[in-house]
Amino acid sequence: QKEVEQNSGPLSVPEGAIASLNCTYSDRGSQSFFWYRQYSGKSPELIMFIYSNGDKEDGRFTAQLNKASQYVSLLIRDSQPSDSATYLCAVTGSSASKIIFGSGTRLSIRP
Amino acid sequence: KAGVTQTPRYLIKTRGQQVTLSCSPISGHRSVSWYQQTPGQGLQFLFEYFSETQRNKGNFPGRFSGRQFSNSRSEMNVSTLELGDSALYLCASSSGLSDMNEQFFGPGTRLTVL
To answer: How would residue B98 be classed by pLDDT, with cut points 50, 70 and 90?
Structure first.
C-alpha cells in the first residue's frame, strides 16, 4: 500500500463547477497535510495546508481533513480553465519534517 | 522576499560522471529538502537538511548525497550517474520548525543523463 494515494485522473470538470480531489494516507501519526498545484513543466506550488480535522477555506479552495478516516480532500469552487493542472497531496511522515507526496491527480477544466 | 533559487536550471551529463546541484532557500528558512521527480515515480523524497545536519533521508542509494552550509544554502551531489537518474530535481525550503513546515519549491534543475 502506498503511503499517500490519489486517483491519477484525469478528472474532467466543466467550467464553473466544483472540482473535488481526494487523497488517503496510511500513517495514522501524520499531523500536517498539504495540497500543491503543479502546472506542466513547472515546480509544485503550495495552495493549501491543514493541520486539524474539519474544513479550511481560502478563497475558492477548501481543504477537508478527516483523521479518523485518514482522508484529506480539496474542493475547488467555480472552477476556471487556469485551474487545469496536476494536484499533489502531501502528508508528513514519521518525522514532521519529512513530507510524502502522492502521485497527483490531473485536473482538466473544460470550457 | 526572494523565493527559492536553484542552479543550474538544466544539465546534460553522461553516464559515470558526477553532478552537483545548488539550492538557496528563502531568507530566514533553515530547512532544505530535496526531491527527485520523474514521470513514472512521481515526487520522491531524497533528504532534508536543517542547520547543516541531515535530519531525514529517503530510500536512495549512497550515490546521492548532500550538504548544507551555515547560510542554509544546500548542495546535492550525484556520483557515477546512471541513465535512470535523468529527472527534475527539486529543492524545497521551509522554516524547519515542527509546527510551521510548509515547504516552498524552487524551479528545479532538469538533469539529463546520456
So the answer is: low
Q: Which residues of B touch A27 (CB under 8 A)?
A: none
Specify the DSSP element, H or E, that contains A26. none
Closest-CA distance of chain A to residue B108, Å: 7
Q: What type of residue is B15?
A: R
**Which of B45, B50, B106 lies at the smallest CB-CB distance from A100?**
B45
Q: Select from B1, B105, B98, B90 the least CA-distant residue to B38.
A: B90
What residues contact residue B62 under an 8 Å CB cut-off, 6+ apart?
none
Does A42 lie at the interface with B, CB-CB under 8 angstroms?
A: yes
Q: Which residues of B57-70 are buried (b: 16+ CB within 10 A; e: fewer)?
A: ebebeeebbbebee
pLDDT tens per residue across span A79-92: 999 999 999 999 98
As beta bridge partners, residue B32 has B49, B93
pLDDT at A94: 66
Q: Identify residue A99 by its one-letter amino acid code.
A: I
